[in-house]
Amino acid sequence: MFFVEFQMHFEKDYSTTAWIHSMIDSTTMLCAPLGSFLGNRLSCRATVFLGGILSSVGLVLSSFASSLEFLYASLGVLTGLGFALSYTPAIAMVGRYFSERKALAYGIALSGSGIGTFLLAPAVQLFIDHYSWRGALLILGGFVSNLCICGALMRPLEQNRAQRIWESNMTNVEKGCMTAVLQTELPEKIPTDWGQAEPKQQQIQNLKDKQGLVISIGTFKNLGLDNDKIQQSITLLPSPKLTVTRLTDKKMAECLLLSNKLETMLEETGVSAKDEFGFLWIPRFLILSISFVFLAFGCSVPVVYLVPYALSVGVKHQHAAFLMSIFGVSGIVGNITFGWITDRKCLKRYRMLSYMVAISMEGLCCMFLPFLRSFSLLVTFSILYGYFDGAYVALIPVVTSDTVGSTHLTSALGVVYFLHAIPYLVSPPIGGWFVDQTGNYASTFFVCGASLFLSSLVLVAASFATNLMALCETALGQKKRPKGN
């Protein structure tokens, strides 16, 4: 809707105007790793709050734009950055809150974008009709500021009863005991968040200044140890050096148990910190990344050009805006239904297959779009395309988690959305260039549909190659086995 208004007001061609939308999406995805980083360092709540401020300011400034170049900076960069800081931490919070029915949880959370599309598409058209596009952007700036409230509501998880008891019991460990243990077990220098190494004595002094068992409140966060792992290791695994019956001093027992487990975990930490981004070399993740690039190129263009295409075939403005509402509602259904279906025990192993089917069907819808030249047929397109779009969006965090594991999910999602950045940046202008050169939308939609098919085909080919290699290895193993066995 804004695309048409910007094009008419600034009298620019399709490809030049399309840079605004592509820069918003590209900046959002390009800065996704920054959102992950700040979410891990500051907290998801603070990062989403900051994102809400930036995106709101960007929209308000855009209402005073005097050129497309101004909109590139205010709407494309500033608002896109705000969305990036809000988007990735919000998705990561879902993974922290839900361990069961994760696909359904992601589906419900991501359906929020569909709800927004459904409600805002006709509302924005009304704002434009009554207040012009400048007034509409100003109103949206105030509306988006509610992201700050959403961020404030993202409260940290409360400890369960077992965790509280564990921390209460362990606060009785003497600080002198802690000093002795740490003096023995810690390396000479300990890396900090900023990559600098602190001397051991300084680190021990920092620990002594804290109340209770400082490990449980994140003193070793710099070392990559999470609280659950520390609790489980210390409380469930006894020291091999001592037996309970021989202990006469409870505090000494606690010190030795703590010392023993800290030694083991600190040895493991050197590997885990080094392998924080080890998922980047997992072959399955590399294949998935290639698929994401083709997906990102093909999926955004139909959304950008659906309203202009509808207007070009004679659909009225209000009806064209209604197509986006239908798209949003259908996306909600796709988010939730695919999330619920793929959470069934019998279907969890087929999540990747479901993801490939959703992408392929979306590509098929895109290729048929140039043949749909009436409002009723475009409604059918919006329903189907929106449904499968919502389906794969809900499955992206799920298939990523299945590929890299939940430990690396936050960092992996940052990389995944980063991979969307360049395709999101170039695909709308390329689509607009095709429209400018040919005078119609057919080539644009065909290219996007082919890109979506390629995204699915990459995964199919990789799956086929993996299964073929497994069969070959099994056959070779049977040939090498002695006949007597």
Automatic annotation (TrEMBL):
Q: What catalytic activity does the UniProt entry give for this protein?
A: guanidinoacetate(in) = guanidinoacetate(out); creatine(in) = creatine(out)
Keyword Signal assigned to the entry: answer is no
GO BP terms in the entry? creatine transmembrane transport
List the subcellular locations: Basolateral cell membrane
- Give one Pfam hit by family name: MFS_1
Q: Which UniProt keywords apply?
A: Cell membrane, Membrane, Transmembrane, Transmembrane helix
The UniProt entry, under InterPro entries, shows:
MFS, MFS_dom, MFS_trans_sf, Proton-linked_MCT
What does UniProt give as the signal peptide span?
none
Major localisation: membrane
The membrane spanning regions, by residue number, are 20-39, 46-65, 71-92, 104-128, 134-154, 285-307, 319-341, 353-372, 378-400, 412-435, 441-471
- Kindly list the GO CC terms recorded for this protein: basolateral plasma membrane
Keyword Membrane set for record: yes
PROSITE patterns given in the database record:
MFS
The Gene Ontology terms for molecular function here are:
transmembrane transporter activity
| Annotated Major facilitator superfamily (MFS) profile domain residues | 1-467
Q: How does it sit in the membrane?
A: Multi-pass membrane protein
> In which family does this protein belong, per the annotation?
Belongs to the major facilitator superfamily. Monocarboxylate porter (TC 2.A.1.13) family.
Question: What biological function has been recorded for the protein in this entry?
Answer: Functions as a transporter for creatine and as well for its precursor guanidinoacetate. Transport of creatine and GAA is independent of resting membrane potential and extracellular Na(+), Cl(-), or pH. Contributes to the process of creatine biosynthesis and distribution.
Per its record, how is this protein called by name?
Major facilitator superfamily (MFS) profile domain-containing protein
What organism does the UniProt record list as the source? Crenichthys baileyi (White River springfish)
Top-level taxonomy: Eukaryota, Metazoa, Chordata, Craniata, Vertebrata
